[in-house]
Amino acid sequence: MSLQPQTKLSALEHILRGMESVVVAYSGGVDSTLVAVAAHRVLGPRALAVTADSPALAARELKEATSLAQRFGFLHRVINTNEMGREGYVSNSPQRCYFCKTELYSHLAKLAAEEGYQWVANGANTDDRGDYRPGMQAAAEHRVRSPLVEAGLDKAAVRQLAKELDIPIWDKPAQPCLSSRIPYGTPVTLESLSKIERAEDFLRSIGFREFRARHHDRLCRIEVGQAEMETAFQLRKEIVQSLKKIGYLWVSMDLSGLRSGSLNDQLKLVPSQHEDDVCHSEHSEQSGDVGQRKRQCTNPAPDSSSSRQVGTPWNDRLPELN
User: Fold this and answer.
1) Closest of 322, 204, 182, 194 to residue 253, by C-alpha
2) DSSP 3-state assignment of 205?
3) What mean pLDDT is reported for the chain?
4) Of 1, 70, 62, 55, the residue nearest 26 (C-alpha)
5) For 249-261, how does the pLDDT look when each residue is reduced to its tens digit (9 = 90+)?
6) ∠ CA 12-16-20 to the nearest 5 degrees?
């Protein structure tokens, strides 16, 4: 390992060693996997990686998380969480991730207290501070630490370290939970999550690497990486046929390509008179955090009328692939 990655790894391991014992919120993505592997290196059995199994976690992601834990030998436990029992999550307001993470961190904090772990940690990195992340508020409320942030590691550094440690998913594209494919204001249901998972399993099965199946009621809006768009058009008939079998009436391709967090764009469509009903950002130039986005929300659960105003444009604007 070259000097620079070794220095970064040493900083991360120093932070984790100082925790003495930790429960890691482990999704199987590259960020939380790096934290789990590093924690295991310095804490051994005093580090426990915990994966929350819920309808919003694709079965393939749970399987991969379990396989990685076995490969690296760190302690791993799967628990069941019940996001679907939280109205704020099911109603799918712009604060959905807050309610999801509150459910997760409540379970992990309870587990840590009962079994004598000093801390709960997540896989957030410094790049996450510049995006719309209401789940970070839930982390703060439950005293969840972010060792990657504390070590000053951005996504590029995370991938670099993961590669150096032979973590096979070091270049794995981000895989947010399935509910992130549903526009704000459209309720999260077991049926919609199942359709999204089946649509994305199909896209993966025919060779796509970076993509999203965005769920707009009877319409599925597909986003793929720029390098794969030509392939998507070539396979459009096969894609349409398969996704209609899943239950979609229309299938469309987003010509902008894959954009992580693209459903946040709909927040900008809310009329100015409703701006108090949605979360918005402002820039901070306080010490050391020039340009860091500060999120504020005066009403975490917008009323149904404003939600429908936010969620409807795509049904009229996106053509079906033929």
Assistant:
1) 322
2) helix
3) 85
4) 62
5) 999 999 999 976 5
6) 165
What pLDDT digit, counting tens, does each position of 145-170 carry? 999 999 999 999 999 999 999 999 99
| CA pair distance 167, 170, nearest whole angstrom | 6
How many CB atoms lie under 10 A from the CB of residue 69?
22
The kind and range of the H/E element at 296 are strand 292-296
The residue assigned the tokens 């390509």 is: 257
Number of H helices, E strands in the chain: 13, 10
Q: What is the CATH number of domain 3-164?
A: 3.40.50.620
For residue range 42-91, list pLDDT tens digits in order: 999 999 999 999 999 999 999 999 999 999 999 999 999 999 999 999 99
Two tokens, residue 91: 């109603």
Q: Most distant CA pair in the chain: distance in Å? A: 58
- Domain residue extents for the chain: 3-164, 177-322
Query: Position of tokens 């949605």?
Result: 278
19 with 35: CB under 8 angstroms?
no
Q: What confidence score (pLDDT) does residue 206 get?
A: 97
Question: Tokens at residue 318, please?
Answer: 């996106």
Match 């996450």 to its residue by tokens.
Answer: 128
**CB-based burial label for 287 (10 Å; 0-12, 13-18, 19+):** exposed
CA 118 to each of CA 89, 198, 224: distance values in angstroms, whole numbers, following the listed order: 28, 39, 41
